[in-house]
Amino acid sequence: MPETPENDVIDYGNLMHDALRVLIRKVLTDVSERGLPGDHHFFITFDTTHPDVEIADWLQERYPGEMTVVVQHWFDGLEVGDKGFSITLNFGEQPEPLYIPWDALVTFVDPSVEFGLRFESHQDDDDPDPEDEDIPEAPMEEDAESDDTPHEAEVVSLDAFRK
Asked: Is the separation of the CB atoms in 100 and 78 below 8 Å?
C-alpha cells in the first residue's frame, strides 16, 4: 500500500482545537454582552511566551511560561475578536489590560458547571510524554454557601487526536 502524503490526512486534532476555540469565543462574546450568568466563572490559562500575547512587563516577568487568570467578580473591557480577546483584570488593586490570542490558550475551565478544555501543543515529538496525560485539577474557590464536597472540573483532553 503506498504511503499517504501528510497533506492527504485530515488533521482532526487541529480541527477540534479550532472548533473549541469558536465555542470559547461564543461564550466570551455572550459574557461581554450580558455579563457572567449565575455562578459561572472562568479559569483561563495561556502561554505567556506566545508572540501576540500582550501583558504588562511585570506580569511577563512573574509568569514567564504560563499564566492563569480568573474571570469572575471584577473585569472590564472584555472585547472578543477573530484572533483573540482583550480584558482588563485586577491584580492586587491594580487594573491591567491583557490581550490573549486564541491560539495561546492552554486551558479553559468553568468550575461552576465542572466543564473544562485543555489544548495540547503540537510539538515535534512523536511519543507524547505520559505525564502530559495528568491534567491538574482547577483551583476551586471556597464559598460560604457551598457544601463541603469538592468538585473536580471535567476537562476534555484533545491529546488523543494528536498525530
From this structure: no
Quote the CA–CA distance of 18 and 12 in Å, as a whole number. Answer: 10
Q: How far apart are CA 18 and CA 102, in angstroms?
A: 9
Select from 63, 62, 65 the least CA-distant residue to 121. 65
pLDDT tens-digit profile of 7-28? 788 989 889 999 999 999 999 9
Q: Specify the pTM.
A: 0.69
What single string gives the DSSP state of each residue in 81-107?
-SSEEEEEEESSS-EEEEEEEGGGEEE
Strands 42-47 and 66-71: antiparallel
Catalogue the E-assigned strands of the chain.
42-47, 66-71, 75-80, 84-90, 95-101, 105-110, 115-118, 154-157
Q: What is the pLDDT of residues 31-71, one digit of tens each?
A: 999 999 999 999 999 999 999 999 999 999 999 999 999 99
